[in-house]
Amino acid sequence: MVKVKKKTISKGSMTSVQEEGKDILIVNLNGKYYALDNICPHLKCKLSKGKLDGKTVICPCHGSSFDVTDGKLVTWINDWPDIIGNITGKLGLSKDLETFDCSVEGDEIVVDTGEKPDISDKKRLVALIIAFLLGWFGGHRFYVNKFGTGLLMFFTMGGFGMWYIVDMVLITGGIFKDKEKKPLKKWL
Length: 188
Ligand code: FES
Fold this sequence. Notes:
The chain has helices at residues 82-89, 124-134, 139-143, 147-160, 162-172, and strands at 2-5, 14-19, 22-29, 32-37, 51-53, 56-58, 65-67, 73-75, 99-105, 108-112. The protein is of the alpha+beta class.
């Protein structure tokens, strides 16, 4: 998820933002926002340095152009003679650009990059209740799919009580992790 202030992109302009390992182009077309890959598939030039012509963004390097509303390729290596374009075109794939869902929340543009947040889907409150009631038997560890350590707790009565207490503290503090090593942050 990437957020950008609306006021930074006036109508008919574009900007780019780098986040979560992605380089994203955001375009304001008459008040409607579009987000797509900022990297040209030919030789990786940044499209944000190019030109916007209506709903088409033109690559600054060799003129390939793309429809910003759906990422579709419009023209491929337009600026070069066909023979050079045909040769260098082989260096990069002529393909459409990846697009991202874009919405407006208050004064911000929110781009959904599709990245999953690095926190567990399991609920902290549920884990805490299970740990409180069944922690001696590793119940909360079964809840987060840690079956190995769950069984170990089961057979050692929660590590003779010590492990049980440590886990209760970790869960309360939002540090306890599930099987994929993602912390349980959400209470509900
Ligand atoms: S890098 Fe974009 S057209 Fe060559």
